[in-house]
């Protein structure tokens, strides 16, 4: 609740200066003490209006003490107040009076500390800002500690390297092992930024001795949000620490995260493999992390498999064609017959991206023959996947491969017993038609579509007639 300070504590109590033009400001000030939280929030958002009306001296001597004495409040109101005071420097008379603001909010003035510290000398920051920040980092309210963690990068830049090393690093260590998961997660998110912003000459030593031991603890944290937050940034440390440290100290952590029970943790590691590859090279990466990736590619949870598929073109580019064919090609083909449609669909799109990356000769020798064999699969879903692959691959493979290798298979499948396959034949012919020469279109393609246009199944008939229209074969 807002405090109930007496009327004498208000900056405009009893209209002391007799200025009726300040009456609206008096109303706003009264609302700061209203029982209604929303009214208090609205008034706080207009604090700059109140300060401008009062002038810099009365803002310093009346408004700020009034706020300090009156508002003992919910976190939401205190947060809004801290945000406002962060922009208040000019309203109290400029940087020379900035220290007044730190006395005006309880321990939730972290945001204000960032703004104020940027204006002060290092000595003034140490004397005027750091006591508030030290208290905030150890505050009994987890929301206060959370805010310190959330604003850590800004704080680090605002206070400078010396204070960072002496004060912020120990505070950060405490935040990384905070009893509240929300605080640990917020701090974990800032690990990479903190490390990047350290002085280059001491960076590696500080990280290895003062940050990494805490990161190792977080890898096995009991809370999945904490582990996910860390996994989203930890790979970036490899570029900061270099090859030797990455192989010795970070790879074991990455491997543990790749095997984490939480899918989001594994996902975050996979999606950032490229920055590790840049540091340690593909052979080392494949020996250490590839087995875990293969394991994920066959995971029981389809969303995990889907995530791996989506990163396969990226992996392919990193591994190179020969290595990819040796280690991962069979996985890509296996996904085409997955029991989950979303996996089969993603696997089809994946093949198209791989052909774009490795070229048509690779497609002709490695992919297309395996895809076309599926046209004879007993499972009609797998036969349909052949058509979906042809749709996706035709443009990337070009006219010759499409005409010579793919078209005969599509035409043959027009006689399939399953209507779903037949109408997908019509759709495939419409898709690949623009790539075919006139003879093929006016010959076999037209005959097959005309036959499908007389099919007993309404859907087959509809899609065949649509293809005839689109390809102008009527």
Short description:
The chain is mostly helical and 474 residues long.
Radius of gyration, whole Å: 33 Å
Structural class designation = mainly alpha
CATH architecture of the domain at 359-474: Alpha Horseshoe
Q: Number of helix segments? A: 29
Mean pLDDT: 86
- State the CATH class of the domain at 359-474: Mainly Alpha
Number of strands: 0
> CATH homologous superfamily of the domain at 359-474?
Leucine-rich Repeat Variant
Beginning-to-end CA distance, first to last residue: 78 Å
Q: Flag low-confidence runs.
A: 1-8
Domain TOG: 118-349
Family: Belongs to the phosphatase 2A regulatory subunit A family.
HEAT repeats: 24-62, 129-167, 168-205, 211-249, 250-288, 289-327, 406-444
Keywords: Repeat
Describe this structure in words.
The protein has 474 residues and is mainly α. Among the domains are: 1-106, Leucine-rich Repeat Variant, CATH 1.25.10; 261-353, Alpha Horseshoe (Leucine-rich Repeat Variant), CATH 1.25.10.10; 359-474, Leucine-rich Repeat Variant, CATH 1.25.10.10. 73% of the residues lie in helices and 0% in strands. The radius of gyration is 33 Å and the shape is elongated. It holds the Pfam family HEAT.
Topology overview:
Blueprint: H1 23-31, H2 37-44, H3 47-54, H4 56-70, H5 75-85, H6 99-102, H7 110-117, H8 122-137, H9 142-150, H10 152-159, H11 161-176, H12 181-189, H13 191-196, H14 203-219, H15 224-231, H16 237-258, H17 263-270, H18 273-280, H19 282-297, H20 302-319, H21 321-327, H22 329-335, H23 341-358, H24 360-373, H25 380-397, H26 399-412, H27 419-432, H28 438-452, H29 458-470
